[in-house]
Amino acid sequence: MTELFPDNNEGTLLENQIEETDESSVTLSVPFDPNLIRIRRDPFTLGELIDKIEYKEVNFFTLFQRKEDLWDEKKKSRLIESVLLKLPLPAFFFDEIEKIDTITKEKTYLWQVIDGLQRCSVFRNFAVDKTMTLKNLEFLTQFNDKTFNGLPRELQRRITQTPITVFVIEKGTPDEVKFNIFKRINTGGLVLTPQEIRHALNQGIPAIFIEELSNVREFKQATCGIIKSDRMEDRDFVTRFSSFYLKDYTEYEPDLDSFMTKGMSSIKNTSDEFRTKMKNDFIRSMNTAIAVFGNDAFRKRQNLADKRRPINKALFEALSVAFSKLSDVQTAHLIERKIIFRQKFMDLNRNTRFFYSLASGTGQKESVFTRFKEIFRIVNETLNEVSID
Question: What digits encode the pLDDT tens for the residues 86-112?
Fold first, then answer.
């Protein structure tokens, strides 16, 4: 990759990071309709949940969770002991999904675990598979080394008759509403990132396509290979591009998370031909960023002598989309005039209003409009600049 701006040892750690921005300080101008929240609270017993688990009506392979069976023996046993001691259990949350038999076309409804996967795993191991043995009990030590079948009948009945709180997010609840629900209840264990929730909500064409774009070689090159994939940070960047590529920034309404959720979901309504064009435009955009900025793409810069900054998500949104909208001829002209463009870019970064749109309240409507409008402006000015040979 062409090095346009010199590195120095002092800035290396900072350069290899993604800049922290505040996307949350946004007043929702178009809040979702509370009537679209379809959550029912079912009167349930632990025995009924165990029955659904036994008959494969609870989906353990869920994208909203990490892995099942992560608890050690002591923690698993203490959960069973809590039930035997009649201590209340935390609520369970499930997403209702429809399954259609490919042969009979019969519809059935499964529950996908949103919150409570580890607890469900314990009850499956202990009361369904009956492979779990109680260990390290704190109070009911006389039942150490007992399986479910080894417990007295009255204690087995106590387990199955224990009342539990079950919340079911009903089928048909809009994705952006589900997204907000998941964010609010996603508080325990390893908290899912917004992009991980979007990925879970948009299986099929959207998830596959976003992953495909995130693996594009040019994207990794333009971002210097520093955007990690383990928590879907790379897919978050790509979803930002896709959302604003599919819907013009002038139609943006806060908040950014909801906008991106809708944007990712809308990919499923596009044709194969459109997605091919979109991918090619994305690749051309990344190549343009490399040609114009070299190792400094998507980073704030006010002067040539400044240290190289971290990658900025808000800049990535605006620059990647602006470059993707250029024709091949316009792209070639912009690259020819990259020195002019970089100077305009540095001048723009010295504008307080623009600089604010990249740092604080980046999800606010005004901030989104400012950064996109100004980036498009300097692109057009550069293309229309009269060449002096």
Answer: 998 988 988 888 877 778 888 888 888
Average pLDDT estimate for 332-344:
97
Tell me the longest C-alpha to C-alpha distance in the chain: 95
Q: For the chain, what is the total number of helices (H) and then of strands (E)?
A: 17, 5
β-pairing verdict for 58-59 and 92-100: unpaired
Same domain, 27 and 48: no
Residue 48 and residue 166 in one domain = yes
CA torsion, ordered 188, 189, 193, 194, to nearest 10 deg: -30
Distance CA(319)–CA(238), nearest Å, equals 13
Full-model pTM = 0.67
- Report the C-alpha gap between 94 and 112 in whole angstroms: 5
- The Cα–Cα gap between 76 and 80 comes to 7
| Pair (62, 121) in one structural domain | yes
In degrees and rounded to multiples of 5, residue 9 shows phi and psi of -60, -30
Domain coverage including residue 211: 9-31+190-384
SS3 130: coil
Residue with tokens 């008959």: 55
User: Does the residue 4 lie in any domain?
Assistant: no
If asked whether residues 211 and 126 sit together in one domain, one would say no
Q: Which residues are within 8 A (CB) of 52 and not within 5 positions of it... i.e. 6 or more apart?
A: 58, 111
Single-letter residue type at 379: V
Are 225 and 374 in the same domain? yes
Nearest Cα residue to 282 out of 225, 236, 213, 184:
213
CA atoms within 13 A of residue 273's CA, in its CB half-sphere = 0
In a domain, 1, yes or no: no
Instruction: For residue range 22-49, list pLDDT tens digits in order.
Output: 665 555 454 556 676 788 888 899 999 9
- 121 and 211: one domain? no
Upstream peptide bond of 101 is cis (omega within 30 degrees of 0): no
